[in-house]
Specification:
Layout lengths: L4 H28 L5 H28 L2 E2 L3 E2 L13 E2 L2 E5 H19 L9 H24 L3 H5 L7 H19 L15 H20 L7 H26 L6 H15 L8 H25 L7 H19 L2 H4 L9 H32 L6 H6 L1 H6 L4
Antiparallel strand pairs: 1-2, 3-4
Helix pairs in contact: 1-2, 1-3, 1-7, 2-3, 2-4, 3-6, 4-6, 4-13, 6-11, 6-13, 7-8, 7-9, 8-9, 8-10, 9-10, 9-11, 10-11, 11-13
């Protein structure tokens, strides 16, 4: 089959859109931390993109999309991009194999950027580099293979259109594990740690919403009706999540801009696995429930004094979990051939629940072990003095 120029153009554009999401995460997180750590948070996202770009080309793509080995991981047939060419690849006959590879690369980089939520304002930069390379190899790559590369979850029938399990559950629960290992920031709970720049966070959220069209609609790997459906469901779920969080928080005080954009991200996360399997009306429900659910999880996190304070776990981890379950409920055959619970397909719900729960356990446990090993060897956390002066100065020698 000849390469489809329309599909190729759309996936090239989608790849660029998803790449934009990685610095957008940096802006979103950078506005939420204290001013002395603003440069650090943005840098962590940019460095994640560079590190994962190299890792993916050398070994990551092969681990994720190489021929299945025991249902767990791919083999080494694509090591160093061996056998990945400009001709149509095995995962799509419409676009070059090289383009599919780089489209998946930007997903992996974005996931690593989201994980930085769990170590905000207290991570040693050298330790982060080691962790990022190990985590992408040992956590992200196997999960991507399970769901998208022909691994056991795909064989069991789990659906994940654009990364609810692979990207959001993995990054959210990894952030939670990191936060547990690295411990609370000095002074957390004793005095208020207010965001330094909410407009920067709003800008980051806007760029994420924009980039998410490539994230979800691009995952159709075609310029067709399915991509259009994913585009529409993505937008409507974001809007529903934003309004649901805003109104829920309004009951307790005033409608904050930060709550609004957090709800939008929650809605986007929730629709990600379902975008190509559900109708726009179902997307409204999925997004609204996602906004309310993630808001309640955030309140619970605050109540328990857990310092995962940029809320990757509450929004990405728990939002991704809801989205995976919702896909198993609301998928209808008329959209993309897959039926969910509302059409009587119990197995689809069970398959999605099993895949999501396995990802929760795997991401949390392996991340926890990695963090402990790095902490016991080279040290995961900066010194008390370095934390006090801020990571911008202590780790990068720069200030805003």
């Amino acid at each position: 089959m000849a390469i489809d120029s329309g599909a190729t153009a759309w996936i090239l554009a989608s790849t660029a859109l998803v790449m934009l999401m990685t610095p957008a995460v940096g802006f979103f997180y950078g506005g939420l931390v204290r001013r002395k750590n603003l440069i650090s948070m943005i840098t962590l996202s940019f460095v994640a993109f560079a590190l994962v770009s190299i890792q993916w080309v050398v070994i990551g793509y092969s681990f994720a999309f190489g021929s299945d080995t025991g249902g767990f991981i791919g083999n080494l047939e694509y090591l160093g991009l061996n056998n990945v060419t400009m001709d149509p690849g095995p995962f799509s006959e419409a676009i070059p194999g090289l383009l599919f590879m780089v489209f998946q690369l930007v997903f992996a980089a974005l996931t690593m950027a989201i994980v930085t939520s769990g170590i905000a304002e207290r991570v040693k930069f050298s330790a982060y580099i080691v962790f990022a390379l190990l985590w992408t190899t040992l956590v992200y790559d196997p999960l991507a293979h399970w769901v998208w590369g022909g691994g056991w979850a795909a064989q069991f029938g789990a659906l994940d259109f654009a990364g609810g399990t692979v990207v959001h559950i993995s990054s959210g629960f990894a952030a939670l594990a990191l936060a547990v290992v690295i411990g609370k920031r000095a002074g957390f709970g004793q005095y208020v740690m207010e965001p330094n720049n909410i407009p920067l966070t709003i800008l980051g959220a806007g760029l994420l919403w924009f980039g998410w069209f490539g994230f979800n609609a691009g995952s159709a790997i075609a310029a067709d009706g399915l991509a259009a459906n994913a585009f529409v469901t993505t937008n409507i779920a974001a809007a529903a999540g934003a309004l649901a969080w805003m109104f829920a928080s309004w009951v307790k005080g005033r409608p904050s801009s930060l709550g609004f954009v957090s709800g939008a991200i929650a809605g986007l996360v929730a629709i990600t696995p379902a975008a190509g399997f559900v109708t726009p009306l179902a997307a409204i429900l999925i997004g609204a429930v996602g906004g309310l659910f993630c808001y309640r999880i955030m309140l619970w996190r605050i109540q328990k004094g857990l310092d995962e304070s940029l809320d990757a776990w509450a929004i990405h981890g728990m939002g991704g979990l809801w989205g995976a379950l919702a896909t198993g409920i609301f998928a209808i055959a008329a959209v993309n051939g897959a039926s969910g619970l509302i059409e009587g397909n119990v197995h689809q719900f069970v398959a999605n629940a099993a895949g999501a729960l396995a990802a929760v356990l795997y991401a949390f446990v392996v991340t926890y072990v990695l963090a402990v090993v790095i902490d016991k060897t080279i040290g995961l956390r900066v010194t008390e003095e370095e934390e006090y002066v801020g990571l911008d100065i202590s780790q990068h020698g720069e200030r805003c």
